[in-house]
Structure formats: structure tokens, C-alpha cells
Specification:
2 domains, 145 residues, 77% helix, 7 helices, elongated, Serine Threonine Protein Phosphatase 5, Tetratricopeptide repeat, TPR repeat
Length: 145
């Protein structure tokens, strides 16, 4: 019985060391991101392997102008976490920034249906109309504002 208890204590200690080792990693990456040292932040975030770190990697790539990698990172997040709206929204804005209007239209159409009362999404969606220069699709959720 004493041996099992000792193994259990050793296991708990190892798990706690692992958890505490990850916390400073995330904080260091956040600090680097905040001061604009995006490349180093990306390197550290990539070691964390969390959803939050993946989102920050996408944001960092976007900030340094590496839109191809930012799009790939956002698309991966959207595909693996379909319920998350933040990466979907940010990917839609990036599609607009890179003039990929049909892809932006698809994302914002989905977002407007999921969260119809969000003025920011509706505003961007409306601006997209001007970019596409087409009024063939409708604003069914505008009335809810």
C-alpha cells in the first residue's frame, strides 16, 4: 500500500511540474507578442500547442504581414474548432484584407446567421457588398438590429 501511495505522490508532483512549466511559456509568449516581437512569440507559442496559442500565432503572422501563413493558421483553427467564432471572424477580416471576397462572403454569411445581432459583423458584411459590387444576396438579419 505504501508503494502505491509513493507512486501516486510522484505522479502528482510530475504533473504539477509539467503544468507549472507551461504557464511561464505562455506568459513569455504573450509578453513578446505585446511588445511586437512576433517572430519569437510565434516560436514560443508553437511549443505550447493550445488553441489560444494557435490563435495568437495566426494573429502574429497577420501582424507581420505573412498573410498566407495567417490564413492557413486561421483555417486550421476554424476547421478544428467550428464552434469558435473569434478565429472565424478574424479569418473573414483577413480574407477581406487580402481581397478574397467570395471566401469572406461565405464566412460572414455564416457568422450573421449564428450571431445576427452583432453590429460589427453586420457592418463588415455590408462593406463586403460594396467590394463585391453585387446585391444579389440579402440581409435577412438586419431587421433584428
Amino acid at each position: 500500500m505504501g508503494k502505491k501511495k509513493n507512486l501516486w505522490i510522484i505522479f502528482l508532483i510530475l504533473v504539477s511540474f509539467n503544468i507549472s512549466a507551461q504557464m511561464p511559456l505562455s506568459q513569455k509568449a504573450d509578453s513578446l507578442y505585446t511588445i511586437g516581437n512576433y517572430i519569437q512569440a510565434i516560436n514560443i507559442y508553437s511549443k505550447a500547442g493550445t488553441v489560444k496559442s494557435s490563435l495568437q500565432i495566426a494573429r502574429a503572422y497577420n501582424a507581420i504581414g505573412n498573410f498566407e501563413k495567417a490564413v492557413a493558421q486561421y483555417e486550421s483553427l476554424v476547421n478544428t474548432n467550428p464552434a469558435m467564432e473569434t478565429p472565424r471572424f478574424e479569418l473573414g477580416k483577413l480574407y477581406l484584407k487580402t481581397k478574397q471576397y467570395p471566401l469572406a462572403k461565405e464566412l460572414f454569411s455564416t457568422l450573421v446567421q449564428k450571431v445576427p445581432r452583432t453590429r460589427n459583423i453586420i457592418s463588415i458584411w455590408g462593406n463586403l457588398f460594396g467590394k463585391l459590387k453585387t446585391w444579389t444576396w440579402q440581409f435577412p438579419h438586419i431587421k433584428t438590429l
